[in-house]
Design a protein that fits this description.
This protein has one domain. Helix content is 77%, strand content 0%. Helix 6 packs antiparallel against helix 10 and helix 11 packs antiparallel against helix 12. The relative contact order is 0.15.
Protein backbone atom coordinates (compact mmCIF):
# COMPACT_ATOMS: atom_id res chain seq x y z
CA UNK A 1 0.00 0.00 0.00
CA UNK A 2 2.97 2.30 0.65
CA UNK A 3 3.97 2.08 -3.00
CA UNK A 4 0.44 2.89 -4.13
CA UNK A 5 0.48 6.00 -1.95
CA UNK A 6 3.91 6.91 -3.36
CA UNK A 7 2.50 6.56 -6.87
CA UNK A 8 -0.36 8.98 -6.28
CA UNK A 9 1.89 11.37 -4.35
CA UNK A 10 4.32 11.63 -7.28
CA UNK A 11 1.49 12.11 -9.75
CA UNK A 12 -0.07 14.82 -7.58
CA UNK A 13 3.33 16.53 -7.44
CA UNK A 14 3.38 16.77 -11.24
CA UNK A 15 5.95 14.07 -12.06
CA UNK A 16 5.73 12.68 -15.64
CA UNK A 17 3.02 10.03 -15.63
CA UNK A 18 4.72 7.21 -17.54
CA UNK A 19 8.07 7.70 -15.78
CA UNK A 20 6.33 7.67 -12.40
CA UNK A 21 4.52 4.43 -13.20
CA UNK A 22 7.72 2.70 -14.29
CA UNK A 23 9.78 4.05 -11.38
CA UNK A 24 7.31 2.95 -8.69
CA UNK A 25 6.84 -0.44 -10.30
CA UNK A 26 10.59 -0.96 -10.60
CA UNK A 27 11.12 -0.02 -6.96
CA UNK A 28 8.48 -2.55 -5.92
CA UNK A 29 10.00 -5.33 -8.01
CA UNK A 30 13.53 -4.71 -6.67
CA UNK A 31 12.94 -3.67 -3.05
CA UNK A 32 9.83 -5.63 -2.05
CA UNK A 33 9.85 -8.75 -4.20
CA UNK A 34 13.62 -8.85 -4.66
CA UNK A 35 13.38 -9.99 -8.26
CA UNK A 36 15.47 -9.20 -11.32
CA UNK A 37 14.71 -5.69 -12.71
CA UNK A 38 14.20 -7.35 -16.10
CA UNK A 39 10.86 -8.54 -14.72
CA UNK A 40 9.75 -4.91 -14.74
CA UNK A 41 10.86 -4.52 -18.36
CA UNK A 42 8.90 -7.63 -19.33
CA UNK A 43 5.76 -6.31 -17.66
CA UNK A 44 6.13 -2.97 -19.47
CA UNK A 45 6.53 -4.74 -22.82
CA UNK A 46 3.51 -6.92 -22.09
CA UNK A 47 1.46 -3.78 -21.43
CA UNK A 48 1.35 -2.91 -25.15
CA UNK A 49 1.40 -6.43 -26.56
CA UNK A 50 -2.15 -6.10 -27.83
CA UNK A 51 -3.45 -5.85 -31.39
CA UNK A 52 -6.49 -3.69 -30.48
CA UNK A 53 -4.13 -0.95 -29.23
CA UNK A 54 -3.40 -0.13 -32.88
CA UNK A 55 -6.84 1.48 -32.94
CA UNK A 56 -5.48 4.42 -30.91
CA UNK A 57 -2.85 5.75 -33.39
CA UNK A 58 -5.22 5.00 -36.28
CA UNK A 59 -8.03 7.13 -34.84
CA UNK A 60 -5.58 9.89 -33.89
CA UNK A 61 -4.20 9.99 -37.45
CA UNK A 62 -7.73 9.91 -38.89
CA UNK A 63 -8.62 12.98 -36.80
CA UNK A 64 -5.47 14.80 -37.96
CA UNK A 65 -6.31 14.04 -41.60
CA UNK A 66 -9.92 15.18 -41.20
CA UNK A 67 -8.91 18.49 -39.67
CA UNK A 68 -6.26 19.16 -42.32
CA UNK A 69 -8.34 18.00 -45.28
CA UNK A 70 -11.16 20.48 -44.71
CA UNK A 71 -13.73 17.96 -43.53
CA UNK A 72 -14.32 20.08 -40.44
CA UNK A 73 -15.26 23.09 -42.60
CA UNK A 74 -17.93 21.05 -44.34
CA UNK A 75 -19.29 19.77 -41.03
CA UNK A 76 -19.52 23.34 -39.74
CA UNK A 77 -21.37 24.48 -42.86
CA UNK A 78 -23.86 21.62 -42.53
CA UNK A 79 -24.50 22.32 -38.83
CA UNK A 80 -24.98 26.01 -39.62
CA UNK A 81 -27.56 25.25 -42.30
CA UNK A 82 -29.46 23.06 -39.81
CA UNK A 83 -29.66 25.33 -36.74
CA UNK A 84 -28.44 28.70 -38.02
CA UNK A 85 -31.93 30.15 -37.99
CA UNK A 86 -32.61 29.86 -34.24
CA UNK A 87 -31.55 32.34 -31.51
CA UNK A 88 -27.96 31.77 -30.41
CA UNK A 89 -27.44 30.08 -33.75
CA UNK A 90 -23.68 29.82 -33.96
CA UNK A 91 -23.39 28.57 -30.38
CA UNK A 92 -25.86 25.80 -31.25
CA UNK A 93 -23.88 25.15 -34.44
CA UNK A 94 -20.79 24.77 -32.29
CA UNK A 95 -22.38 21.97 -30.24
CA UNK A 96 -24.04 20.24 -33.21
CA UNK A 97 -20.80 20.27 -35.21
CA UNK A 98 -18.99 18.68 -32.27
CA UNK A 99 -21.61 15.94 -32.10
CA UNK A 100 -21.20 15.20 -35.81
CA UNK A 101 -17.39 15.33 -35.65
CA UNK A 102 -17.47 13.04 -32.60
CA UNK A 103 -18.62 10.22 -34.86
CA UNK A 104 -15.43 10.56 -36.88
CA UNK A 105 -12.49 11.28 -34.59
CA UNK A 106 -13.21 10.02 -31.07
CA UNK A 107 -10.94 12.72 -29.69
CA UNK A 108 -11.90 15.78 -27.64
CA UNK A 109 -8.58 17.49 -28.33
CA UNK A 110 -8.98 17.03 -32.10
CA UNK A 111 -12.41 18.64 -31.82
CA UNK A 112 -11.14 21.55 -29.72
CA UNK A 113 -8.13 22.20 -31.91
CA UNK A 114 -9.68 21.53 -35.32
CA UNK A 115 -13.31 22.63 -35.23
CA UNK A 116 -12.47 25.11 -32.49
CA UNK A 117 -10.55 27.39 -34.84
CA UNK A 118 -13.50 27.62 -37.21
CA UNK A 119 -16.17 27.90 -34.54
CA UNK A 120 -14.55 30.59 -32.41
CA UNK A 121 -13.71 32.78 -35.41
CA UNK A 122 -17.25 32.51 -36.79
CA UNK A 123 -18.82 33.33 -33.41
CA UNK A 124 -16.52 36.32 -32.83
CA UNK A 125 -17.25 37.65 -36.32
CA UNK A 126 -20.98 37.34 -35.61
CA UNK A 127 -20.80 39.43 -32.42
CA UNK A 128 -20.40 36.78 -29.71
CA UNK A 129 -17.94 37.70 -26.98
CA UNK A 130 -14.74 35.66 -27.12
CA UNK A 131 -15.13 34.29 -23.57
CA UNK A 132 -18.52 32.73 -24.33
CA UNK A 133 -17.34 31.46 -27.73
CA UNK A 134 -14.35 29.74 -26.20
CA UNK A 135 -16.38 28.29 -23.31
CA UNK A 136 -18.94 26.74 -25.67
CA UNK A 137 -16.14 25.30 -27.80
CA UNK A 138 -14.36 23.73 -24.84
CA UNK A 139 -17.56 22.34 -23.29
CA UNK A 140 -18.82 20.84 -26.57
CA UNK A 141 -15.46 19.16 -27.25
CA UNK A 142 -16.11 16.80 -24.33
CA UNK A 143 -18.79 15.06 -26.41
CA UNK A 144 -16.13 13.67 -28.78
CA UNK A 145 -15.04 10.65 -26.72
CA UNK A 146 -18.63 9.74 -25.72
CA UNK A 147 -20.28 9.41 -29.12
CA UNK A 148 -18.46 6.53 -30.85
CA UNK A 149 -15.86 5.88 -32.04
CA UNK A 150 -13.95 6.75 -28.88
CA UNK A 151 -10.28 6.36 -28.00
CA UNK A 152 -11.18 6.41 -24.30
CA UNK A 153 -13.65 3.55 -24.72
CA UNK A 154 -10.96 1.57 -26.55
CA UNK A 155 -8.59 2.07 -23.60
CA UNK A 156 -11.26 1.08 -21.06
CA UNK A 157 -12.25 -1.95 -23.12
CA UNK A 158 -8.66 -3.17 -23.38
CA UNK A 159 -8.02 -2.59 -19.68
CA UNK A 160 -11.19 -4.34 -18.54
CA UNK A 161 -11.66 -6.97 -21.29
CA UNK A 162 -15.13 -5.47 -21.85
CA UNK A 163 -16.60 -5.40 -25.36
CA UNK A 164 -15.47 -2.21 -27.10
CA UNK A 165 -18.45 -2.47 -29.43
CA UNK A 166 -20.74 -2.61 -26.39
CA UNK A 167 -19.09 0.49 -24.96
CA UNK A 168 -19.55 2.29 -28.28
CA UNK A 169 -23.24 1.39 -28.23
CA UNK A 170 -23.54 2.61 -24.64
CA UNK A 171 -22.14 6.04 -25.54
CA UNK A 172 -24.76 7.10 -28.08
CA UNK A 173 -27.54 8.25 -25.74
CA UNK A 174 -25.28 9.91 -23.13
CA UNK A 175 -23.50 11.79 -25.93
CA UNK A 176 -26.81 13.03 -27.33
CA UNK A 177 -27.88 14.05 -23.83
CA UNK A 178 -24.70 16.07 -23.39
CA UNK A 179 -25.35 17.92 -26.63
CA UNK A 180 -29.00 18.59 -25.78
CA UNK A 181 -28.18 19.84 -22.28
CA UNK A 182 -25.51 22.23 -23.57
CA UNK A 183 -27.91 23.56 -26.20
CA UNK A 184 -30.54 24.16 -23.49
CA UNK A 185 -28.06 26.31 -21.56
CA UNK A 186 -27.12 28.14 -24.75
CA UNK A 187 -30.80 28.88 -25.41
CA UNK A 188 -30.99 30.52 -21.98
CA UNK A 189 -27.96 32.70 -22.67
CA UNK A 190 -29.27 33.53 -26.15
CA UNK A 191 -32.43 35.02 -24.64
CA UNK A 192 -30.53 36.73 -21.81
CA UNK A 193 -27.84 38.31 -24.00
CA UNK A 194 -29.77 38.78 -27.21
CA UNK A 195 -27.74 36.42 -29.37
CA UNK A 196 -29.63 36.21 -32.64
CA UNK A 197 -29.84 34.08 -35.74
CA UNK A 198 -26.92 33.84 -38.14
CA UNK A 199 -29.04 33.21 -41.23
CA UNK A 200 -32.56 32.45 -42.36
CA UNK A 201 -33.43 28.83 -42.89
CA UNK A 202 -32.97 27.77 -46.49
CA UNK A 203 -33.88 24.31 -47.71
CA UNK A 204 -31.65 24.91 -50.73
CA UNK A 205 -28.63 25.72 -48.52
CA UNK A 206 -29.34 22.69 -46.32
CA UNK A 207 -29.44 20.40 -49.35
CA UNK A 208 -26.28 21.98 -50.77
CA UNK A 209 -24.41 21.65 -47.45
CA UNK A 210 -25.60 18.07 -47.06
CA UNK A 211 -24.45 17.25 -50.58
CA UNK A 212 -21.06 18.85 -49.93
CA UNK A 213 -20.53 16.89 -46.71
CA UNK A 214 -22.28 13.60 -47.45
CA UNK A 215 -19.03 11.73 -48.09
CA UNK A 216 -17.60 13.02 -44.81
CA UNK A 217 -20.79 12.03 -43.00
CA UNK A 218 -20.40 8.49 -44.27
CA UNK A 219 -17.35 8.12 -42.01
CA UNK A 220 -19.22 7.49 -38.73
CA UNK A 221 -21.88 5.46 -40.54
CA UNK A 222 -19.27 3.10 -41.96
CA UNK A 223 -17.04 2.99 -38.86
CA UNK A 224 -19.67 2.59 -36.16
CA UNK A 225 -22.01 0.55 -38.34
CA UNK A 226 -19.17 -1.77 -39.30
CA UNK A 227 -18.08 -2.28 -35.69
CA UNK A 228 -21.56 -2.83 -34.29
CA UNK A 229 -22.47 -5.01 -37.26
CA UNK A 230 -19.45 -7.22 -36.73
CA UNK A 231 -17.93 -6.40 -40.13
CA UNK A 232 -14.63 -5.28 -38.65
CA UNK A 233 -12.91 -4.79 -35.31
CA UNK A 234 -12.23 -1.36 -33.76
CA UNK A 235 -8.61 -1.63 -34.91
CA UNK A 236 -9.66 -2.38 -38.49
CA UNK A 237 -12.19 0.45 -38.25
CA UNK A 238 -9.41 2.85 -37.25
CA UNK A 239 -7.31 1.77 -40.23
CA UNK A 240 -10.28 2.23 -42.53
CA UNK A 241 -10.95 5.69 -41.08
CA UNK A 242 -7.37 6.72 -41.94
CA UNK A 243 -7.69 5.41 -45.50
CA UNK A 244 -11.09 7.00 -46.00
CA UNK A 245 -9.98 10.40 -44.62
CA UNK A 246 -6.87 10.30 -46.82
CA UNK A 247 -8.86 9.49 -49.97
CA UNK A 248 -11.33 12.30 -49.24
CA UNK A 249 -8.59 14.84 -48.56
CA UNK A 250 -6.27 13.87 -51.40
CA UNK A 251 -8.50 12.75 -54.26
CA UNK A 252 -12.01 14.08 -53.58
CA UNK A 253 -11.57 17.48 -51.88
CA UNK A 254 -7.98 17.90 -53.19
CA UNK A 255 -6.98 19.80 -50.07
CA UNK A 256 -4.25 17.41 -48.94
CA UNK A 257 -0.80 17.42 -50.57
CA UNK A 258 1.69 14.58 -50.46
CA UNK A 259 4.20 16.72 -48.55
CA UNK A 260 1.59 17.30 -45.81
CA UNK A 261 1.45 13.61 -44.93
CA UNK A 262 4.85 13.29 -43.17
CA UNK A 263 3.98 16.20 -40.85
CA UNK A 264 0.61 14.65 -39.96
CA UNK A 265 2.22 11.26 -39.33
CA UNK A 266 4.88 12.89 -37.14
CA UNK A 267 2.23 14.69 -35.04
CA UNK A 268 0.29 11.44 -34.72
CA UNK A 269 3.44 9.56 -33.66
CA UNK A 270 4.14 12.08 -30.88
CA UNK A 271 0.60 11.89 -29.51
CA UNK A 272 0.38 8.11 -29.85
CA UNK A 273 3.77 7.53 -28.22
CA UNK A 274 2.69 9.51 -25.18
CA UNK A 275 -0.52 7.51 -24.78
CA UNK A 276 1.04 4.12 -25.53
CA UNK A 277 3.98 4.73 -23.18
CA UNK A 278 1.49 5.32 -20.38
CA UNK A 279 -0.38 2.15 -21.31
CA UNK A 280 2.87 0.16 -21.42
CA UNK A 281 3.91 1.45 -17.99
CA UNK A 282 0.46 0.61 -16.64
CA UNK A 283 1.13 -3.06 -17.38
CA UNK A 284 3.77 -2.99 -14.67
CA UNK A 285 1.79 -0.89 -12.20
CA UNK A 286 -1.28 -3.07 -12.68
CA UNK A 287 0.77 -6.10 -11.72
CA UNK A 288 2.07 -4.24 -8.64
CA UNK A 289 -1.47 -3.27 -7.59
CA UNK A 290 -2.58 -6.87 -7.93
CA UNK A 291 0.35 -8.03 -5.82
CA UNK A 292 -0.51 -5.42 -3.21
CA UNK A 293 -4.14 -6.63 -3.27
CA UNK A 294 -5.36 -3.10 -3.96
CA UNK A 295 -8.60 -4.24 -5.68
CA UNK A 296 -9.48 -6.53 -2.78
CA UNK A 297 -8.75 -3.88 -0.16
CA UNK A 298 -10.70 -1.25 -2.09
CA UNK A 299 -13.69 -3.58 -2.30
CA UNK A 300 -13.50 -4.25 1.42
CA UNK A 301 -13.31 -0.50 2.10
CA UNK A 302 -16.33 0.31 -0.07
CA UNK A 303 -18.45 -2.52 1.32
CA UNK A 304 -17.40 -1.47 4.82
CA UNK A 305 -19.06 1.88 4.13
CA UNK A 306 -22.12 0.49 2.37
CA UNK A 307 -22.96 -2.35 0.03
CA UNK A 308 -25.46 -0.17 -1.85
CA UNK A 309 -24.52 0.28 -5.53
CA UNK A 310 -25.58 3.96 -5.48
CA UNK A 311 -23.05 4.69 -2.70
CA UNK A 312 -20.32 2.93 -4.69
CA UNK A 313 -21.15 4.94 -7.82
CA UNK A 314 -21.21 8.18 -5.82
CA UNK A 315 -17.76 7.47 -4.38
CA UNK A 316 -16.45 6.52 -7.82
CA UNK A 317 -17.70 9.76 -9.33
CA UNK A 318 -16.17 11.86 -6.55
CA UNK A 319 -12.84 10.03 -6.89
CA UNK A 320 -12.77 10.38 -10.68
CA UNK A 321 -13.76 14.04 -10.57
CA UNK A 322 -10.92 14.85 -8.17
CA UNK A 323 -8.36 12.85 -10.15
CA UNK A 324 -9.62 14.38 -13.40
CA UNK A 325 -8.62 17.80 -12.08
CA UNK A 326 -4.98 16.72 -11.97
CA UNK A 327 -4.47 13.88 -14.45
CA UNK A 328 -5.34 13.12 -18.09
CA UNK A 329 -8.07 10.55 -18.67
CA UNK A 330 -5.98 7.69 -20.10
CA UNK A 331 -3.79 6.97 -17.05
CA UNK A 332 -6.78 7.28 -14.69
CA UNK A 333 -8.73 4.73 -16.74
CA UNK A 334 -5.74 2.41 -16.92
CA UNK A 335 -4.91 2.56 -13.21
CA UNK A 336 -8.39 2.56 -11.68
CA UNK A 337 -10.30 0.16 -13.92
CA UNK A 338 -8.68 -2.98 -12.42
CA UNK A 339 -9.48 -1.60 -8.96
CA UNK A 340 -13.06 -0.45 -9.57
CA UNK A 341 -14.35 -3.12 -11.93
CA UNK A 342 -14.32 -6.16 -9.59
CA UNK A 343 -16.19 -4.21 -6.90
CA UNK A 344 -18.67 -2.87 -9.45
CA UNK A 345 -19.45 -6.35 -10.76
CA UNK A 346 -19.80 -7.68 -7.22
CA UNK A 347 -22.35 -4.93 -6.46
CA UNK A 348 -24.32 -5.57 -9.64
CA UNK A 349 -23.07 -2.63 -11.73
CA UNK A 350 -22.65 -3.66 -15.37
CA UNK A 351 -19.10 -3.15 -16.74
CA UNK A 352 -20.40 -1.19 -19.76
CA UNK A 353 -22.34 1.13 -17.46
CA UNK A 354 -19.25 1.66 -15.30
CA UNK A 355 -17.11 2.35 -18.39
CA UNK A 356 -19.43 5.01 -19.79
CA UNK A 357 -19.76 6.69 -16.38
CA UNK A 358 -15.98 6.72 -15.94
CA UNK A 359 -15.25 8.12 -19.39
CA UNK A 360 -17.94 10.82 -19.22
CA UNK A 361 -16.70 11.90 -15.78
CA UNK A 362 -13.12 12.11 -17.04
CA UNK A 363 -14.20 14.06 -20.12
CA UNK A 364 -15.49 16.73 -17.75
CA UNK A 365 -11.96 16.65 -16.35
CA UNK A 366 -10.67 17.80 -19.76
CA UNK A 367 -12.24 21.21 -19.09
CA UNK A 368 -11.47 21.28 -15.35
CA UNK A 369 -8.42 23.18 -14.09
CA UNK A 370 -5.57 22.82 -13.41
CA UNK A 371 -4.79 20.09 -15.98
CA UNK A 372 -7.80 20.33 -18.33
CA UNK A 373 -6.15 19.73 -21.70
CA UNK A 374 -9.03 21.12 -23.75
CA UNK A 375 -8.87 24.33 -21.70
CA UNK A 376 -5.28 24.88 -22.79
CA UNK A 377 -6.03 24.04 -26.44
CA UNK A 378 -9.06 26.33 -26.66
CA UNK A 379 -7.34 29.17 -24.76
CA UNK A 380 -4.52 28.99 -27.29
CA UNK A 381 -6.88 28.89 -30.28
CA UNK A 382 -8.97 31.78 -28.94
CA UNK A 383 -5.90 33.74 -27.79
CA UNK A 384 -7.63 34.09 -24.46
CA UNK A 385 -6.04 34.13 -20.97
CA UNK A 386 -6.70 30.82 -19.25
CA UNK A 387 -8.19 32.50 -16.16
CA UNK A 388 -10.87 34.19 -18.28
CA UNK A 389 -11.76 30.94 -20.01
CA UNK A 390 -12.08 29.15 -16.66
CA UNK A 391 -14.50 31.79 -15.39
CA UNK A 392 -16.53 31.63 -18.60
CA UNK A 393 -16.84 27.85 -18.63
CA UNK A 394 -18.10 27.44 -15.05
CA UNK A 395 -21.85 27.53 -15.97
CA UNK A 396 -21.31 24.72 -18.49
CA UNK A 397 -20.38 22.30 -15.73
CA UNK A 398 -24.01 22.33 -14.58
CA UNK A 399 -25.57 20.55 -17.61
CA UNK A 400 -22.62 18.17 -17.96
CA UNK A 401 -22.73 17.11 -14.31
CA UNK A 402 -26.52 16.69 -14.49
CA UNK A 403 -26.07 14.32 -17.43
CA UNK A 404 -23.38 12.46 -15.49
CA UNK A 405 -25.72 11.99 -12.53
CA UNK A 406 -28.56 10.86 -14.78
CA UNK A 407 -26.55 8.17 -16.53
CA UNK A 408 -25.03 7.12 -13.20
CA UNK A 409 -28.35 6.47 -11.47
CA UNK A 410 -30.51 5.61 -14.48
CA UNK A 411 -28.38 2.85 -16.03
CA UNK A 412 -31.00 2.15 -18.68
CA UNK A 413 -29.90 5.34 -20.45
CA UNK A 414 -26.55 3.67 -21.04
CA UNK A 415 -27.61 0.04 -21.37
CA UNK A 416 -30.66 0.23 -23.65
CA UNK A 417 -28.64 0.02 -26.88
CA UNK A 418 -26.04 -2.52 -25.65
CA UNK A 419 -28.90 -4.71 -24.38
CA UNK A 420 -30.70 -4.43 -27.72
CA UNK A 421 -27.54 -5.41 -29.58
CA UNK A 422 -26.73 -8.32 -27.27
CA UNK A 423 -23.80 -6.77 -25.40
CA UNK A 424 -25.59 -6.34 -22.07
CA UNK A 425 -25.63 -9.97 -20.97
Amino acid sequence: MLFVLLLFALLAAGAPIAITLVAVGLLYVVLVIGMDPLIAAQRVATGIDSFPLLAIPFFILAAELMNFAGITDRIFRLAKSMVGSIPGALAHVNVLASMIFAGMSGSAVADAGGLGKIEIKAMKDDGYDVDFSAAVTAASSTIGPIIPPSISFVIFGLTSSVSISGLFAGGFIPGAMMGASLMALIAYYARKRGYGRSQSFSARELVAALGDSVLALMTPVIIVGGILGGIFTPTEAGAFAVLYAFVLGKFVYRSLAWNDVPKLIFETALTSANVLFIIAASGLIGWVMTAEQVPVRFAEFIIGISDAPWVFLLLVNVLLFVLGCFMPSAPVIIMLTPILLPTAVMLGVHPIHLGVVMVLNLMIGLITPPVGLCLFVVADVAELPLARLIRAILPFFVPLILVLLLITYVPGLVMILPNALGYGS
